Amino acid sequence: MKYTAINIGPVVPTISMGRKPREIWAASYMFSFLMECIIKQLPQDSIISPATLETDEKETDEKLGIGLYPDRVFVKGDFNVNNVVDKALEEYKNVTGIDGSYVNVMHVTIDGDDSSNDAKTIKRLNQLLDCTELYNRPVCDNTRKKVLKLIREKEKSPLFEQAFSSNKFKIPYLAEIATQKLETLNESVWKELCDKYRGKDSNNDGDEDSFYQELKNDFKKTYNEDYFSYYKYICIVQADGDNMGKIVSSISADNVLKVSKALLEYGKLACKEIKSYGGLPIYAGGDDLLFIAPVQGNNNTIFGLIDGIDKLYADMVDKSIGEFRPNNLHTYMSYGLSISYYKYPLYEAFKDALDLLFTKAKQIDGKNAVSWQLRKHSGSGFKGEMSKNVAIYNDFKNIMNVSVEEKQISAIAHKLKNNENLLDILLKKYLNENNSDDLKARLENFYKKTMEDTGDNKYTALTRELLFKLMCTADKKTEIETILENMYGMLRTAKFIKGEGDNDE
């Protein structure tokens, strides 16, 4: 029995060309559409993964306006792969104008002995595809210019027509996404202003500057509401399923297809969840997810949205593995979250989120983690990372719900920094003795002596509990400086998401 895997690219370099939400979206969608062209040419009953949209549901799912196909397809059986690729590229070029001189379609075929070797064979195919992805083919300037023209097209884009059954522009601009929460104050006022500036969608920042000034003045004049600084910030979120590669490489082809179908349904619902929050889904293929979202959306924060996506993934994907779960392996979602000012280059924020996901979140023991970075307009920045299956994560979200003055955070941070040596002694004592009760008692005594004049007692107590749990989860390689830096990043991020008043940083 022959097994074939096909991989497409260059996805990340192309997405990195985008300067606006619609360009990021288009760069991603062009590859999902390419995979759709390839899948159409394959023998449908031989596809192991991904699951494909049925004909009767395709029209409905097109309205999602999102690429649902990943960059890899696995097929079982004997067929002419070169013929499949050639026909797919021909259709792709006819629609988009982009040919095989830009897109990479790489494939490998190996022999499997029998169905019992499905798992080993799929694992081997993934390894071979990983090697092919290391090949970077040079692209001529003219070809690159064609791709840039395609992804920057505002009207009459063939990609829009494929995704929306219309060639009209339907992607929100950055300021529209960032301020989406203001829709709840007065939907008509907000939408009218968004429509006004959508027509001015130029490559200059001036239009968005004017949008923000007019929006701020209008809402402050009309409503007795604070204009929060997070209205000028945007979230780029990269997410990836944990342990999915190990699971897929350990189960039969039939079960891989079952998981793939669950992933497809999860992707559609996750996109709807993101849109309901006020975000823009960019990509939802397999266990990968990419989207742009406001810091605060409809009745929720970005971390609340992450929790909602996690629940969907657990209920639909992890549960689907069921009785064929290998070695009691569970799959979760890990996230890289970049929060940046609206003038910060979008492609840089995209790269930041990707780096946070794979070099930080995915490296945490047990994964199921989130790593974030907040880049302030002022030049300062805060970051943090944690597993979502520990109590620290809930403490962080609880702190997010507490109002606190700027000076209290600064006072607590200052006193902790000044007593870093003492806290280091407490940390080492705990790591040597593993006595959490003793550590808790000593921290309570420390706080009583040093934090009396820092302000609100409830908030101070929450920070003490957070510090305690951070120290309890440390290992012997962890420095107290790292713990305090992570804690400060949590406190500052929580304060920012809660709202900093009329401060345009």
Structure characterization notes:
The chain has 505 residues and is α+β, with helices and mostly antiparallel strands. The chain has 3 domains: 1-171, Alpha-Beta Plaits; 172-389, Alpha-Beta Plaits (2-Layer Sandwich), CATH 3.30.70; 398-505, no CATH class. The chain contains 20 helices and 12 strands. It has helices at residues 11-15, 21-41, 55-62, 81-96, 118-132, 141-152, 158-164, 174-178, 187-198, 206-222, 244-248, 253-277, 302-321, 346-360, 391-400, 406-418, 420-433, 436-450, 457-472, 480-498, and strands at residues 2-9, 47-49, 72-76, 104-111, 233-241, 280-285, 288-294, 296-297, 300-301, 333-341, 369-375, 381-387. Strands 6-7-5-10-11-12 form a 6-stranded mixed beta sheet. Helix 9 (187-198) packs antiparallel against helix 10 (206-222) and helix 15 packs antiparallel against helix 19 (457-472). The termini are far apart.
